[in-house]
Amino acid sequence: MGIATGAASEGNSATSALIVAVIIVVYLGYSAFKRHGFRPRRVETTLSGQQLRHVFKKKVARNGWSIADDGNPMIAESVMPAGIRQQISLRISEANGRTIGEVAAILHEKKAFGGTAKAYTLRWRMNAFIAQVRRLDSSAKVMG
After folding, report:
1. What angle do helix axes 119-136 and 49-59 make, rounded to 10 degrees?
2. What residues contact 137, with CB distance under 8 A and at least 6 apart?
3. Number of other residues whose CB lies within 10 A of the CB of residue 40
4. For the CA atoms of the chain, what is the radius of gyration?
5. What is the pLDDT of residues 21-38, one digit of tens each?
6. pTM of the entire structure?
7. What pairing do the DSSP bridges indicate for beta strands 65-70 and 141-143?
8. Angle at alpha carbon of residue 143, lines to 140 and 71, rounded to 5°
9. How many Cα atoms within 13 Å fall on the side-chain side of residue 53?
C-alpha cells in the first residue's frame, strides 16, 4: 500500500483550486453587489424640497432610525443599540425649476474582511426613498 500519486491526486488538487477560485469570485461579486446597492443617487423631481424631506423622514427615518440633523443635508441615523451606527443623508438643491435630491450613505462600518456591515439596511432604505419619489412624481429622473 502506498500513497496515491499521479493523475488522481492531480485531479483532486485541480478540483480544490477550482473550488477555492469559485468561492473567491462569488465573495468578491457579492461584496460588489452589496456596495452597489447603497451607492449615492441623485433624483431630479418636480416635488418641492419640503415634500422630499417628508418622504425622507417617512421612508428612511423609520423602524429604529431617527433624524439626527434636520438641516441641509438632512441626516437619518440608526440607533446605537442596533450595534452598528449607520447614516444616510439627503442634500436638496434647485436647478432649472426642478428639485434635486442627493441621497447617500455617509456612515457605514466594514466587517473584518472588508465587506460592508448591514448593507441591506442601507439598500432598503435608499430604495424605499427613490421608489416613493417615483410614485409621487412619474417624471422623476434618477441617476446613480
Report:
1. 140
2. 45, 46, 47
3. 14
4. 22
5. 888 888 888 777 766 667
6. 0.73
7. unpaired
8. 80
9. 14
